[in-house]
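Async update (no meeting this week)

Hi team, since we skipped the sync, here's where things stand on the single-chain job. The sequence we agreed to prioritize is pasted below, unchanged from the tracker. I ran it this morning and attached the output directly underneath so nobody has to dig for it. Comments welcome in thread, and please keep replies under the output.
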Amino acid sequence: MKRHYISTLALAFAANAITFAAQAADIKNIVIVHGALADGSGWRKTTDILEKRGFAVTIVQEPITSFNDDVAATNRVLDLQDGPSLLVGHSYSGMVITEAGNRPDVAGLVYVAAFQPDKGESLLSLASSMPPAGTSIKETKDGKYLYLDPAAFAQDFAADLPKDEAEFMAHSQVFAAKEAFEAKVGVPAWKTKQSWTIVATEDRSINPDLEREMAERAGSTVTEIKSSHAVFASQPEKVANVIEAAVKALSR
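Output:
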C-alpha cells in the first residue's frame, strides 16, 4: 500500500510537472502596465510589433488613484487571460507588477525604465535615495495628485520623441495620486520569478544608476538602451525584442 501511494504521488507530480512545462512552453499573453504621467496609448508601436510576432497583448489602463487600485486593475486584466502571462511594467508600474506578479499565472516580469522595489520600499523612498536629473514634478492645488510640468515634459520624459508626440503625451498625461507614490510594496515577485530590466541610459525621470542598482539586487537580466524615460515609445523594436527574449527564456 505504501509503495502504491508513493508511485501514485510520483505520477501525480510528474503529471503536474508536464502540465507546467507545457504552459511555460506556450506563453502567448503579454500584459503591459503603463507608468504614471502617461497612459497605455504610448505602447501602441510596441504592441503592434509583438502582435505581429504572434503574441496576445493587453494594456492595463490603471487609474493611479492608489497603489491598491492599480494592483486591482492589473489583477482584473490578468484574470481575463487564458494561460500564463508575462507581466511588463514601466516606471511607477514596476511597483505594481512587483506586487501583482506574485500570482501563480504570472510567468515572469519585465521592468522597462521602472522602479523595482524590495519589501517595504515605496516609489518616493527609492527615488529620493538616488534623485533623477529631472525635477519638474508638481502638485495639484488640492495637494493630492502629482503631474509633470507640460513645459518640461519633453525634456524630462520624452526627449527622443518627435516634438508633436511629446506634446501630446504632456497634455494627455494621467495624474498620479501621492498615495500611490507613498505606498509600500509587500513581498516582491522578483524573489521567486525571473525578471528582465531595461535601463534607459538617458532617463531623466528615474536615475539610470538606480535602475541598474535595483536590477542587480533582483538578479535581473539587464539590457541598456540609449533612450529617454519613454523608451517604450521611442525604441519600440528594442523593447519588443527584450520582451520576446523573456518569453523565449521562460519557454525553455
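Quick observations from my side:
The first strand starts at residue 29 and ends at 33.
Residues 130 and 209 are 8 Å apart (CA to CA).
Reply here if anything looks off.
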